[in-house]
Amino acid sequence: MELALGLDLFRGKAVEVPTDLVLEAERLGYHSVWTAEAYGSDAITPLAFLAAQTSRIKLGTAVMQVAARTPTATAMAAATVDALAGGNRFIAGLGVSGPQVVEGWYGQPWGSPYYRLREYVDIMRQVFRREAPVTLDGREYQLPYGGDDALGQGKPLKSILHPNPDLEIFIASGGPANTALTAEVADGWLPMGWSPETCSAYDEPLAKGRAKRDPRLGELQIFPSLTVQVTDDVGSVFDAMRPLTAMYVGGMGSESNNYHREAMARRGFPEEAARIHELWLADRRDEAQAAIPDEYFDAGGLYGSVDRIRARWESRYAGAPAAGYVVRAGNSETLALMADLAGLNDRANNAAEQPASAGEGS
Predict the structure, then answer these.
(1) pLDDT for residue 49
(2) What is the C-alpha to C-alpha distance for residues 187 and 220, in angstroms, rounded to an integer?
């Protein structure tokens, strides 16, 4: 079982990277650290900063919004940070965001998220592998560009930089079509609305995608998000989460497109999600917050005493079909607790006890 550290740097008025927390995660043997973006700070720049502070931990974006950059620009940024970090460390996590952000912030058409993601990954793989000049005559992207306003002088090109050809691509998704696409073309999956009790709902789209999967990609790595907080007052923790959760479920998106609302429904709370959305649109925001059941928060993380967290980890998460979890925790003590629960300490001790291979130490 792997653990990753999730950072939410985009929510504050200023960017403050918790370097000490990242360094502690690396020391504890965490697999990766993940940044995000919305309509403020970007996800890539903090990882370039962290690449200079760390030596082993992988650097992932959860997620880069595909409307923000062309596929080749995203591939260039990923390959550049990966090279600066020493290679085989960057994970390009992608997501489509929603129409409010795509059209309102980036000034791009919403288009077809399914085809945009498929073509985006195709182009990025071409950039990384350098098997031929990059070309695509797609529904969302054309390389070289051939629109009515083109000069007709575009030329297929290869990356000048020789990037890691196996640089990993993860996709954040929740709906069946994009989840099947993820299982087909991505190295890893950042699921939305996933919980140990409801994850079997994804079995069909995952199987559909895996049936078409390129064997070169290996097994699909599944990394759900997991918030962890040690507390003796769980109710107060949930109350502090209500305003932001109500905003996301009720107002982060349009009436027809809100993937946070859909994720809540997939986690087993469809009626509550619809009610929160209804109250938010009616500007009854206090009621929208009150409509979020405690069980919803509890289903998406580990809260309470160390004993409660330990018991719920063992009963819910330890045996679930995930390669690892993106842990959101606010202090090093909680990171250490999760490292102990996931067996990272045992793994490190076993590695230290292995005898040196022939030639080492000579």
Answers:
(1) 98
(2) 6
